[in-house]
C-alpha cells in the first residue's frame, strides 16, 4: 500500500506491505521513509 503525508514544505511517502505482521527491520524502514520517530510511533500503540 502506498501511503503519503504532507509536512510543512515537504511531502513524504512510503510503501507499506499489507501483511498480518511486519518484521522489525521492515517497520523501521517504513518509519524512516515516512520520517516518523520510532519513539513517537510507539506512543500510539
Can you describe this structure?
By secondary structure, the protein is of the alpha+beta class. It has one domain. The chain has helices at 24-33, 38-43; strands spanning 2-7, 10-15. The chain has a two-stranded antiparallel sheet. The longest helix has 10 residues, at 24-33. The chain is globular and about 30 Å long.
Quick description:
This protein has 45 residues and is α+β, with helices and mostly antiparallel strands. Helix content is 36%, strand content 27%. A two-stranded antiparallel ribbon has the order 1-2.
**Percentage of β-strand residues:** 25-35%
Mean pLDDT: 88
Strand order of the largest sheet: 1-2
Radius of gyration: 11 Å
Global structural class: alpha+beta
Q: What's the multimeric state?
A: single chain
- Count of alpha/pi helices: 2
N→C terminal distance: 20 Å
Helix content: 25-40%
Number of strands: 2
Unreliable stretches covering 5 or more consecutive residues: none
Largest sheet properties: 2 strands, antiparallel
Sum up the overall morphology in one term. Answer: globular
Counting structural domains, the number is 1
* Run of helices and strands: EEHH
Name a few traits of the molecule.
two-stranded antiparallel sheet; alpha+beta; 2 helices; single chain; HicA_sf
